[in-house]
Design a protein that fits this description.
Largest sheet: 7 strands, mixed
CATH architecture of the largest domain: 3-Layer(aba) Sandwich
CATH class of the largest domain: Alpha Beta
Bound molecules: adenosine-5'-diphosphate
Low-confidence stretches: none
Number of domains: 2
Shape: globular
CATH topology of the largest domain: Aldehyde Dehydrogenase, Chain A, domain 1
Radius of gyration: 23 Å
Strand content: 15-25%
Number of strands: 20
Mean pLDDT: 98
């Protein structure tokens, strides 16, 4: 079995400890590789290397155009390995092969996009009085620590790393223990081949409770970025507060699509397919709830039922597959429990509700109707191919139901009436609102949550500000 290593200070190394992490292919339940689990010593070493690299000012003092060029070299290297890296990512995560390859291309695009900002980190001059010349500078924090989830191991890593690097920070990345292989091997190789000076980018994986906690509590980590569950996000925010360092957090969601009576139902069906069945629903901004007007409920449910029947379940590397496995047995059981609890609470299964009778962590495309707002399946993030359909009569009631959860990551509205679309979008609590579609964003569009879904914004130009601190300089003339 192939053994993988951590990437610290420009070299691939084992952990100093003896514990290993066996990585399982969710489609076959077979172990495909292992990596030694990083402990506190390993994390401390990586942070120390990042600190030395930062203090050498190799990146901070690099001409912005050179920094941009280096980032574009990383992008080129990522594109070169997208096929092989994608194949490994598909095996460890279970997602579609095309989506796995795309993660490397997406990562390359993040480096290209943020390379364009290296020479646009501009301060201001501020009039104080004619005896003082005052100006501001944006400076990096130093060592930035990133804790990455397993659902987009490469894209999400690149999302924060490209920003952090463009800003001039050194970075230590802790990939999720379920999906560390493509990151520590292919991604690290791309960084290495691009000629990134040692210590600027370090990738060390281990269990959250040990390696993740060691990273967030290390006194030399000056800024933290986390994407994952609300529960873990709160632990990380506490750790950041303990040391008074800033944290970027992008947490979970329970995003609702509100379907108005005049909606184009084919668009609703298409959005459902990508919104909740792509990547087996394991996307923080997945369309996990639908709130449909009573007058069209039967028609919508008929078409959704047809959709579910048309969905082909299978491994990510098989031709024509729509629905891939969930990440682990634990996640599968969690989804199963929600399915059971939904029926017990009085929901009606339009489709699915069970694990698929085959090897691998496959769950049926699941759509439950007659869901009431107070049911657990309408409130909690399931992170599986599971859509809860609720219905409403009055528009304000629909808005109320949509906003009535602890989350506020995404929301959507389906209508042909632009006026109603904008009015509804204004009232929905969500960092992003999609109209007549789902996942309309790009690297250039800000992404983040309202309420417990987090408060930071990633992507887009303003995200780089999270990796910069502001200095004011006053000169007595
Ligand atoms: P999920 O519950 O979806 O598996 P988590 O939000 O727990 O996801 O994990 C996302 C990332 O956070 C992973 O890299 C995981 O190792 C890390 N993590 C988990 N617990 C902690 C912790 N206490 N401190 C720091 N990182 C953690």
């Amino acid at each position: 079995m192939k053994k993988y290593q951590h990437y610290i200070n420009g070299e691939w190394v084992d952990s100093t400890g003896s514990e290993t992490i066996a990585v399982v292919n969710p489609a076959t339940e077979e172990v495909i590789g292992e990596i030694s689990a990083a402990n506190k010593d390993d994390i401390d070493q990586a942070v120390a290397a990042a600190k030395v690299a930062y203090e050498s000012r190799v990146l901070v003092d690099m001409n912005p155009m050179e920094r941009a060029k280096l980032m574009r070299s990383i992008a080129d290297e990522l594109r070169k390995i997208s096929k092989d890296g994608g194949a490994l990512l598909c095996e460890e995560n279970g997602k579609l092969l095309a989506a796995s390859e795309y993660e490397f291309l997406d990562a390359a695009n993040y480096f290209d996009y943020y390379s364009g900002l290296t020479d646009k980190i501009e301060g201001q001059t501020i009039p104080v009085n004619n005896q003082v010349m005052d100006y501001t500078l944006y400076e990096p924090y130093g060592v930035s620590g990133h804790i990455v989830p397993w659902n987009f191991p490469i894209s999400m890593l690149a999302r924060s790393l490209a920003c952090s690097f463009a800003a001039g920070n050194s970075t230590v990345i802790k990939p999720a223990e379920l999906t560390p292989l493509a990151t520590t091997s292919f991604f690290a190789q791309a960084v290495h081949n691009a000629g990134v000076p040692k210590g600027l980018i370090n990738i060390v994986t281990g269990y959250g409770i040990e390696a993740g906690a060691a990273l967030t509590s290390n006194l030399d980590v000056a800024q933290i970025t986390f994407t994952g569950s609300v529960k873990t996000g709160k632990i990380i925010l506490h750790a950041a507060a303990e040391r008074a360092v800033p944290a970027v957090v992008e947490l979970g969601g329970k995003s609702a699509a509100v379907i108005l009576p005049d909606a184009d139902i084919d668009k609703v069906v298409n959005a459902t397919k990508v919104g909740i069945f792509s990547q087996a629903g394991q996307i923080c901004s997945a369309m996990s709830r639908m709130i449909v007007h009573k007058s069209i409920k039967d028609e919508v449910l008929d078409k959704l039922s047809e959709l579910a029947k048309s969905i082909k379940v299978g491994p990510g590397n098989e031709e024509g597959v729509d629905l891939t496995p969930v990440i682990s047995e634990e996640q599968l059981q969690k989804v199963e429990n929600y399915a059971r609890s939904g029926l017990q609470a009085g929901a009606t299964a339009i489709s699915g509700g069970n694990r698929v009778d085959r090897k691998g962590y496959f769950f049926e495309p699941t759509i439950y109707a007659d869901v009431r707002p107070d049911m657990t399946i309408a409130q909690e993030e399931i992170f599986g191919p599971f859509l809860s359909v609720l219905d409403y009569e009055d528009h304000e009631e629909a808005i109320h139901i949509a906003n009535d959860t602890d989350y506020g990551l995404a929301a959507g509205v389906f209508t042909k009436d632009v006026d109603m679309a904008t009015k509804t979008a204004a009232k929905l609590n969500g960092g992003q609102v999609y109209v007549n579609s789902w996942f309309t964003g790009s690297i250039a569009t800000p992404f983040g949550g309202y309420k417990q879904s987090g408060y930071s914004r990633e992507k887009g130009q303003q995200a780089i500000k999270s990796y910069l601190q502001l200095k004011n300089v006053g000169i007595q003339l």
